[in-house]
Amino acid sequence: MAHNILVLDDERNYLVVLEALLEEAGYSVTALSDPELALTYLEESEVDVLVTDMKMPKLSGREVLERVHKDYPHIPVLIMTAFGSIESAVEAMRLGAFDYISKPFSNEELMLSIAKATQLADMHRSNRLLRENLQDRYGLHNIIGNSKAMMHVLTMVDKAAPSRSTVLVEGESGTGKELIARAIHFSSSRKDQPFVSVNCMALSPGVLESELFGHEKGSFTGAVASRRGRFELADGGTLFLDEIGELTPELQVKLLRVLQERKFERVGGTQEIEVDIRIVAATNVDLAEAVKEGSFREDLYYRLNVVRIDVPPLRERREDIPLLAAHFLQKYCEENNSSVLAFTPDALNYLTGYEWPGNVRQLQNVIERCVVLSSGENIDVDDLPAEVCDEESQFKSAVDLLPAELNLSDTLAKIEAALVRRALARNDFVKVKAAESLGISKSLFQYKLKKYKVSGHK
To answer: What DSSP designation does 111 have?
Structure first.
């Protein structure tokens, strides 16, 4: 696809020459003499590079540059200026022009500058597409779940995203805390700026300090050059600090200062560096309890805990499991070119009833395994890992679904009655077989039928 070059000059001769020269080089050219018309054209069309004269009626090249730089910062602007007006060209560069060429110009000089400008335009387009892809991938709508618990989380994300406030995300490992952090970033005004992530548990304290704050050359053995840290890399955007509860007391003090002042020094440095960042922190430990135990600073906790989002474990939002399972099934079928179509009802019941100690991450891994190993069109119980089908785990999960406060005697009676009914139905209402399946005598089974007023067909 040819790059679209917009040429703006009130001198007709230059327009004709430029249009012919650029079209011969394979560019798509739009030549205009009216600056106001050019600005209207920019609103309606995709332009890769703008070439504009400096002196024009209605609007000067400088005014056009300022408008384009403000409204279309991804478009490189080349300024053309008459020989002897170098000062104005230098001023245009200061205002954001990509380059300037003097009239009369050589064809080689113009084409070289245009080629460099189109390369920059391609880079801007790639970056823009990447940001759009990331926003689409990590936007709010990609957090899967319609349970009451997840609706509350999504509401919190939606409210917190536009603000500058620090956010603390708490939840068990595997619940998707980083996905929440990314959704906050890509739903905020910082979405076009960096999202930088660091796992505070993955690095030793010394390495983590350098990773966060950067270091100066010679500050420690092996520091052969100065290096920017994550705080500097995230300037203008969001810094995600995962496993924040693992910070040492010394690093907690340094982080507290950054949160208070938005300033810090590199390791081994003395110059203060000021940054504009938003902090989103996450932890799988109870920081309030850590404060009580003395392992986490109380003042830092309150600095982090401005907006708190608690991500529920998967066992507390079981109604989301079928949605997540279907999502991962589609994902891994596409990746593995698999023809698996769906889960059988029994398999889905086991998935929904399992405890999922590893939460969404574990579910994702199980579904990927099933897609890879399944040989049929549907994933059945036999395709599931043994731990998912474990009866003790399934029973524990069923108990977890019961209300926290209940009458034990009444609840046990209801469970026993349900088991009697199920045994009867599963054995075609043959009472002898139903009793055998429950491991009790026929006479005891008959007693329980009478006790719970269960009628049988046979």
So the answer is: H
- Using N-to-C axis directions, what is the helix angle for 177-186 and 148-160, rounded to 10°? 40
The pTM for the full model equals 0.62
3-state SS assignment for residue 266? coil
Contact 237, 278 (CB under 8 A): yes
The residue type of 216 is E
| Structure token digits, residue 252 | 């907690």
- Read off the pLDDT of residues 155-179 as tens digits, 9 standing for 90 and up: 999 999 999 999 999 999 999 999 9
| Strand partners for 273 | 264
Contact 358, 393 (CB under 8 A): no
d(Cα 434, Cα 427) in Å, to the nearest integer?
6
Q: How many helices (H) and strands (E) does the chain have?
A: 20, 14
243 dihedral zone (left: phi>0; alpha: psi -120 to 50; beta): left
Can you spell out the DSSP letters for 270-316?
A: -S-EE---EEEEEESS-HHHHHHHTSS-HHHHHHHTTEEEEPPPGGG
DSSP SS3 for 99? strand
Contacts of 411 (CB under 8 A, 6+ apart): 402
Per-residue tokens: 212? 């966060």
Residue 21 near residue 48, CB atoms below 8 Å: no
- Output b/e per residue, 40-53; b: 16+ Cβ within 10 A: ebbeeeebbbbbbb
pLDDT per position as a tens digit, 136-152: 555 555 688 888 999 99
Task: Tell me if 370 sits within 8 A of 331, measured CB to CB.
Answer: no
* Tokens standing for residue 121: 């335009």
CB contact at 8 A, 139 and 103: no
List the CATH code of the domain at 4-133.
3.40.50.2300
For residue 199, list its beta bridge partners.
242
Task: Look up the CATH architecture of domain 139-312.
Answer: 3-Layer(aba) Sandwich (3.40)
Overall average pLDDT of the 87-104 stretch: 79
Half-sphere exposure (CA, 13 Å, Cβ side) for 72?
Answer: 23
Output the six-digit token pair for 458.
């046979």
Scanning the structure block, which residue is given the tokens 């917190």? Answer: 160
Give the C-alpha distances (Å, rounded to integers) separating 340 from 199, 345, 362, 363: 36, 15, 20, 17
CA 375, 378, 380, 383 torsion-angle sign: positive
Query: Which CATH class name applies to 315-400?
Result: mainly alpha
